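Hey,

The postdoc asked me to send both predictions to you directly instead of through the lab channel. I've kept everything plain text so nothing gets mangled by the mail client. Protein one:
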Amino acid sequence: MKRRTFLMTGAAATLAFPVVADTAPLLKVLKTPTCGCCSAWVDHVRQAGFAVEAQDVDQDQLWAFKDRLQIAPELAGCHTAVVGDYFIEGHVPAADIMRLLAEQPMARGLTVPGMPMSSPGMGGPGAGDTFDTLLVGSDGVTSVFASHS
């Protein structure tokens, strides 16, 4: 195929098939600049197809953001994100976020409290801990959304 024909075909294909990132759900993440596991989690959700805007903030700003979202301290992780009308707290697997967005339950968000070793960004499957992703209802009551071992 001649170079010009190849380039024209490629340009037409780009117009016909828009880049996935343009329509991917946008996760806005607040994290501290020195937390490597937060950056690894951001990489995890990007690899799963999410568009991500990550902002480095100091601890006081991060905790003030958690307070505004009414995330109880016992439900906290090391970073906080929002997607649509939901918060995503801590090392929540991308598949759980996708399920949340597909099902759209009446809830405030998802959380993986603490920093379980086998969660995304902390070492991944087989690293040790089993953990649950919790759904935080509109009333703040939690229920198990997904279990991971």
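Protein two:
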Amino acid sequence: MCTNYTPATPKHLVEMKALGLAAAPPDAWPSEVYPGMSAPVVVASPDGAPRAEVARFGLIPRWVKDGQQAQKVSRGTLNARSETVASKPSFRAPWRERRFALAPMLDFFEPCWEDAHLVGHRSVRWRIARADAAPFCVAALHERWTDPATGEIVPSFSLLTINADGHELLGRMHRPGDEKRMLVVLPSEHWADWLRADHTQALAMLQRTPPGLLVGEPAPRETPSRPAPTPPPAEPPDPQRGLF
């Protein structure tokens, strides 16, 4: 389950030729993304052409009633399980409407517990990236929610995951005994296909990344010299086990 990653920069978006973008979104986004922050996503325009926009990490379902509920629900919709995405209340509408998106990124972070006994029985944050250091795209769902109080339209998104038990790299992440999960990293030749896929085609693309394409290394957060806001934990409770 991914809760933190490094999004592609505007320069990367234009240079990722398989995305087919003429320009990056005009809005800025953070260099490292956590829940509730903005990040670029690529979606299909009404005419089918790819379009980049900035959206909130953590999908806000259209049935959310107010901003307080939106904040609460979206922390449980960072990732969508491919096995249940068609039936979960938060995801079934965008899945049914084929609101498929691409989340361009440079790397993402996962908690590894292999050396927990050496570091105070805590996980160590690992950075996961392509072996060739190229930017990549993760399969995502996107949604648009209208805040009743302000009329603001809030774009948001969720990253799709699949089972990673036994995977040579992602199978090593997360707590011992927990199910292993991994993001769906789409090959560049399928980026355009994903945006216009039907449900059968989309399900067929939800596959594990082949061995060797991804590499990982420890990337612990720096200890601040003075008190600072605490970032989200490396591994929050799995929200997919509940309503979302």
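Summary for protein two, as requested: The mean pLDDT is 90.

Thanks,
C.
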